[in-house]
Amino acid sequence: AGNGFQWSRLPRCCSGLAAGGAEPGGGHHGNRAPAQGLQPQKQRPDTARETERSRAPTTGAFVEDARRLLTLAYPERWPLSAAVGFLGVSSLVTMSAPFFLGKVIDTIYMNPVGENVTGSLTSLCAILSGVFICGAAANAARVYLMQISGQQIVRRLRTRLYSSVLCQEIGFFDKTSTGELINRLSSDTDLLGRSVTENLSDGLRAVGQAAAGVGMMFYVSPQLALFVLGIVPPVGVLAVFYGRYMRKLGRVTQDSLADATQTGLTGNLIVLSVLYKGGLMMGDAYMTVGELTSFMMYAFWVGISIGGLSSFYSALMKGLGAGGRLWELYERKPEMALNVGMILQPDQFKGAIEFRRVTFAYPTRPEIPVFSELDLSIPAGSVVAVVGPSGSGKSTLMSLLLRLYDPVSGTVAVDGHDVRSLNPFWLRKNMGAVNQEPVLFSCSIAENIAYGTTHPFQLTMEDIEKAAKIANAYEFIRNFPKGFQTVVGEKGILLSGGQKQRVAIARALLKNPKILLLDEATSALDAENEYLVQEALDRLMEGRTVLIIAHRLSTIQNADAVAVLDQGRIVEYGTHQELLANSDGLFRKLVEKQTILQNSQKHMLKV
Ligand SMILES: Nc1ncnc2c1ncn2[C@@H]1O[C@H](COP(=O)(O)OP(=O)(O)OP(=O)(O)O)[C@@H](O)[C@H]1O
């Protein structure tokens, strides 16, 4: 770490897709099998919980969701408790305001004519101003604490969710779109975070204020309070019928207008009735003007609080809805455990590969088999080129070998061991992959080269430079003003195709895998770049078992054996010469097609 890299910035992709995609040091799963001989494989996790979640929501599920929410908020219990305390103070001040404002009005009205009210009015208003300022300060403290706690909860939630996403099997990403995952991570976490903080405190405040408001209405005038409570239900019923009638009259799009009219009508009727009854009571000297004002203000607060409760309810439901989607991802166990299973000792690990009667279909298309009873053997240390028409499954062979997917039947074996029994983390650590579009990350070239090695902390700048030299990448990297510290942009966008490939080759060289998977998908490299990449690849291939998706005749000619893939099986297998000798064979036809293509290109160039 002393050479200036920011290791913490290296992406920790659990799936290990890139040439060096394995996570150094066992990652955060921590259940890495000890490196001694064969280790037993653990049971595959069940997905029962997932099925359970997809059922219709029940009271049990609701309670369970609420429990999860509370667990999430638990680490923030102290700031949240303080916020609830401040909430109590500010609500108390808010709810005492109408009472004291009523007193101020009575002080003004009730003083006998000619008496100086300045003294008592000034002190009352000064005290009240002080109390209101304290209430506002308590409210500010509540908002601050709620915001901070909410952000902490969202951060924690996002971190957990993100690592859960990284640990899923590849099939999961075939089914789930990136946009959906980003939505889960950004807006759903935000909704949920807010529902346990802001919405909950708003809800608490609404309940508290409604209860206090009703209580104070009774305190100020029990008679008027009883009268109001007596007329609210019938007026409410009236409003519902009126609203329905409006809806029938209007189109569906005018629903909100009908609702608004209904609310306005209900409120106005209630205010009118309070003024009527209160006015009569004042006339009979049962009530002062200040008391009637206080009463009206409390009635308003009760109305506002009940309105707040309904928006709190809808916000809470939104939060719970977002939670339902989040927990599913949060608790999803990958169908393929990442870091359990056998690890082969160096003396047992030779790198022989065998596909035995493999039948496979992608999980998203189970009805379309890619392979049916496919057999292929690749002896340790040999180079086997796979050729075949587009879509015949050449890349799929590699995916099965990396155990990104499991076959439906048959086995994929490394040194005689079914890859399902091997530790995927270990397996991927010992496989390198270089393809036309290498996976580069938006960090420095040095970090990209070092990514995926077993002990990145022990690497020196010399190691990285040496790998870059062998990969024919050193020269172009040195020519950048920042050299190895050049940041390559998202997916390495600031590098050319050939440069990206050479960085990927340097990365694979450092990783030093026993098995190499090459996909030389027809790339649009110019002659010089192609030569440099080919030379680097030749160096990389030395002394390894290589499975190569071949497009160039030169590669096919140099391979120890060529396997021709068609219709889900290996239809021809042998050396280049042997296959070429079969005039009816598919290989011969593929080569002829390519030769024709090359001739036509030559012809076009001459013209
Ligand atoms: N993730 C996936 N989910 C579903 N089907 C897939 C997936 N990846 C590939 N396929 C399908 O599987 C078949 C084999 O694809 P594959 O990419 O292995 O072929 P290929 O021989 O490498 O093709 P090419 O030479 O064009 O790259 C194709 O029909 C393809 O549409």
From TrEMBL:
SUPFAM superfamilies: ABC transporter transmembrane region, P-loop containing nucleoside triphosphate hydrolases. It is a multi-pass membrane protein. Its main location: mitochondrion. Keywords: ATP-binding, Membrane, Nucleotide-binding, Signal, Transmembrane, Transmembrane helix, Transport. It is found in: Mitochondrion inner membrane. Residues 43-55 have a biased composition (Basic and acidic residues). Residues 24-57 are annotated as: Disordered. It comes from the Eukaryota. One of its GO terms (biological process) is oligopeptide export from mitochondrion. PROSITE patterns: ABC_TM1F, ABC_TRANSPORTER_1, ABC_TRANSPORTER_2. Gene3D superfamilies: ABC transporter type 1, transmembrane domain (1.20.1560.10), P-loop containing nucleotide triphosphate hydrolases (3.40.50.300). This is ATP-binding cassette sub-family B member 10, mitochondrial. It comes from Chiloscyllium punctatum (Brownbanded bambooshark).
